[in-house]
Amino acid sequence: MKKIVCFGDTITEMGSVIELRGYVAQLMDRYVRRADVLLRGFTGYTTHEAVRILKTAVLDEHPDFVVLSFGLNDSALPGQIQHVPVKDYRRNLLEMSSQIASSGAWLVVVTPPPVDEGRVKSRAMDHTALYAEACRAVAAEMRVPLVDIFTRLQEEPNWKKACLLDGLHLSANGMNRLYEEVAKTLDGMKPLDAFERLGVDGI
How many angstroms separate the CA atoms of 160 and 113, rounded? Predict the structure, then answer.
């Protein structure tokens, strides 16, 4: 079977939580008997740590598709322990994207989500927007599909409360939106019906 690796930070790790309708759990359900969906989510990680574990966490699995989602932690405001300057974030994201593409895997890049700076003091919307833009630039340079969840969530009515659990992490509604965008993007690369279904013919 094909392999889809979801590699990211807290949002990806929380993607396994059924109560939140985690986007990775939904992908597992969608691709059951068609592809193995592997969760490689690391709470608290920035792209600095991600680059260091890329080989073990992702490349050694020889995936067919990779969903790469970092920036939630990198975009912490200067002075915060997780802060990664945007130029370093872009460089790290480009390095990982290049290695994944060179491995032969299809790649989807996901922007960090918007934040509610009224509820979380370690983030600011204008600052997070710089990281979303850097992510867009990497996807354009690599010529790979982009899931712009930063923009998409802001299209939802009352998005700060509807899509964010605590001002930073995704609620069930936010996870649903992310799942829908990732699934649509993967379909554009290889439709679900094109994945061979494991089992005896007709059963």
Answer: 11
Parallel, antiparallel, or unpaired for β 65-69 and 146-147? unpaired
Enumerate the domain spans of the chain: 2-194
Task: Output the pLDDT for position 119.
Answer: 96
Please list the ranges in the chain whose pLDDT falls under 70.
202-203
Report how far apart, in Å, the C-alpha atoms of 23 and of each of 29, 92, 169 are. 10, 24, 13
CA-CA distances (angstroms) from residue 94 to 30, 137, 143, 167? 29, 9, 11, 28
| Sign of the CA dihedral with 90 first, then 96, 102, and 107 last | negative
Answer whether 84's CB lies under 8 Å from 77's CB.
no
Contact assessment for residue 198 and residue 34, using Cβ atoms and an 8 Å cutoff: yes
CATH classification number, 2-194, choose in 1.10.10.10, 3.20.20.70, 3.30.70.260, 3.40.50.1110: 3.40.50.1110
Give the C-alpha separation, 29 to 17, whole Å. Answer: 13
Which amino acid, one-letter code, is at 70?
Answer: F
- In this prediction the pTM is 0.95
Q: What is the pLDDT of residue 202?
A: 61
